[in-house]
């Protein structure tokens, strides 16, 4: 349900911005990039603070804070009258972010490490299932009732998430006193492979930048491929959700496979595959070709971020999991800032097709980085 709520509004965000003023194509691309990335800029700053609090008070408190706060903010987005109000609310949304990352940390600490790949794969399946249905539902609702009603429905869904989390999520957690908390320096001195952990943080940033470089322009690209004819909102939602179908199928299987053959190997294979999928996206001539390639990208998505999270889980002591996952979320958020800005900038200079080429280059840089940080290192596998 959280995945549904977070993805419900994304397919038409650029189209919604277009209704808030009279913008040129360049201005629309710019404001779309700013609106997408503003949330994640704040998330990158506040995540370590929430992570420290999570290690002291527990992860359940954090998912309650995130779901309730996001419900209020997203509901208010349906009432804005200009793009600046929308950007301000997106900034505030970043303060209340962290539901998925804290759910991941909670699962990581509640699950035996030998099964962490499988458990996180299942959790990703849940969030991706929501991400799959969210754009379809959002596109349909926006097409029937308009963009603003969709924000109100999103707020209601998040309130239900809050209630379900409050009554049905249980955590076995021993509070840590403030004076007993380790500093960040002490945490990294305790880790067996600090180079690997930091390497995974940077990998998360680049993966997220690659995924989100396309987000601000996807609906605009679909509109261009359709020559501004047809139900653009709904079709954009379909194209946005297609990777979720593949991820839904592949994530649990790849998680189990990674536990067997090595999660770092799964990560490298997925990065190589992504390079060869992004490049043809710049050559498509219709939405069906774009949809087919995005399905293949969904398979690589099923491997990449869960693989990073599994590597972090298997190489981090349980008492530091919340902090490490919060640092990883900060890097993920920074990637979500960098990605849309790359997408909106490149599309303004080279048109939409150039975004996919630049994304392929970014994934190639990520592959080189992963090979460097894992070179000569046996990634710990828990038997």
Short structural description:
The protein has 383 residues and is mainly α. 80% of the residues lie in helices and 0% in strands. Mean pLDDT is 81; it is low at 379-383.
Task: List its salient traits.
383 residues, mainly alpha, Growth Hormone, Chain: A, 0% strand, disordered C terminus, membrane, transmembrane helix, MFS_dom
Per CATH, the class reads Mainly Alpha
Order of helical and strand elements: HHHHHHHHHHHHHHHH
Question: Kindly, what is the distance between the CA atoms of the first and last residues, rounded to a whole number of angstroms?
Answer: 33 Å
The radius of gyration is 20 Å
Stated plainly, the CATH topology is called: Growth Hormone, Chain: A
Low-pLDDT segments: 379-383
Number of continuous helical runs: 16
Mean pLDDT rating: 81
CATH superfamily: MFS general substrate transporter like domains
């Amino acid at each position: 349900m959280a995945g549904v709520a977070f993805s419900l509004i994304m397919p038409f965000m650029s189209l919604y911005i277009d209704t808030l003023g009279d913008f040129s194509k360049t201005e629309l691309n710019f404001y779309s990039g700013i609106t997408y990335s503003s949330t994640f800029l704040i998330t990158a700053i506040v995540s370590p603070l929430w992570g420290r609090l999570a290690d002291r008070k527990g992860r359940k408190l954090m998912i309650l804070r995130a779901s309730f706060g996001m419900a209020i903010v997203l509901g208010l987005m349906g009432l804005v009258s200009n793009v600046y109000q929308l950007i301000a609310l997106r900034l505030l949304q970043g303060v209340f972010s962290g539901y998925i990352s804290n759910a991941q940390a909670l699962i990581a600490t509640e699950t035996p490490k030998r099964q962490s790949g499988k458990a996180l794969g299942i959790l990703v399946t849940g969030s991706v299932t929501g991400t799959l249905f969210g754009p379809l539902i959002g596109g349909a609702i926006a097409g029937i009732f308009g963009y603003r009603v969709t924000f109100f429905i999103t707020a209601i869904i998040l309130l239900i998430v809050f209630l379900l989390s409050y009554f049905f999520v249980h955590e076995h957690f021993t509070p840590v006193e403030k004076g007993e908390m380790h500093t960040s320096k002490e945490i990294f001195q305790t880790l067996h492979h600090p180079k690997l952990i930091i390497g995974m943080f940077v990998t998360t940033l680049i993966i997220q930048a690659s995924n989100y470089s396309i987000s601000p322009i996807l609906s605009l690209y679909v509109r261009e491929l359709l020559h501004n004819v047809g139900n653009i909102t709904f079709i954009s939602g379909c194209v946005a959700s297609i990777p979720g179908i593949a991820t839904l199928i592949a994530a649990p299987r790849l998680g189990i496979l990674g536990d067997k053959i090595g999660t770092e190997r799964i990560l490298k294979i997925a990065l190589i595959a992504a390079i060869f999928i992004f490049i043809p996206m710049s050559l498509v001539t219709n939405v069906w070709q774009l949809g087919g390639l995005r399905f293949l990208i969904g398979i690589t998505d099923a491997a990449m971020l869960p693989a990073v999270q599994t590597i972090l889980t298997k190489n981090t002591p349980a008492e530091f999991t919340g902090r490490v996952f919060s640092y990883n979320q900060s890097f993920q958020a920074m990637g979500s800032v960098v990605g849309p800005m790359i997408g909106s900038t490149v599309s303004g200079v080279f048109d939409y097709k150039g975004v996919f080429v630049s994304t392929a280059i970014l994934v190639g840089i990520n592959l080189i980085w992963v090979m460097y940080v894992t070179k000569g290192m046996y990634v710990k596998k828990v038997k």
